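hey can u check if this looks right to u? its 155 residues, i copy pasted from the old doc so theres a chance i mangled smth
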Amino acid sequence: MMVLMSKQSGNTVPKQCIAAKAIIKNKEGKILVLRQSYEKTVDGAGQYHPPGGIVEPGETLHETIKREVMEETNLQIEIRKLLSVEEWHVNIRGDDCYFVGVFFECGLKGGNFNTDNIETSGFAWIGPDDIDKYEILQPSKKVIAEVLAGHLNQG
């Protein structure tokens, strides 16, 4: 990862990244979260978050979210609508990263659910009573709580 230097102050500024995140509900109305694999040099290792990831150069948000969900879960999705845009900072392997995360409501189209990959170490389907039982990364926890409470207009 690249860390940029400010020409005026000589200080480092965070690397800027865009992430696309999928809010996927099952038939019971619970939302899928994945447990991030353990890596000591990555903030949030071992915590939960919705499927998704960083937009690669030349990719659209929709291409990113479909690719990431397939890589992480082996599921095909349909993107229904934009739910929220959030910001956060994390440290990834020594780099300070500023993220803009774009959260989409997504429906399942197909695939055989499987989280056997290097990026995830588990998963859960969470409902309103489960949200505090799992260590969910912010601002994902806020978005999930708003969706489960009906505050973000889904449907």
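The beta strands are 4-5, 12-13, 15-24, 31-36, 48-49, 52-54, 75-92, 95-111, 120-126.
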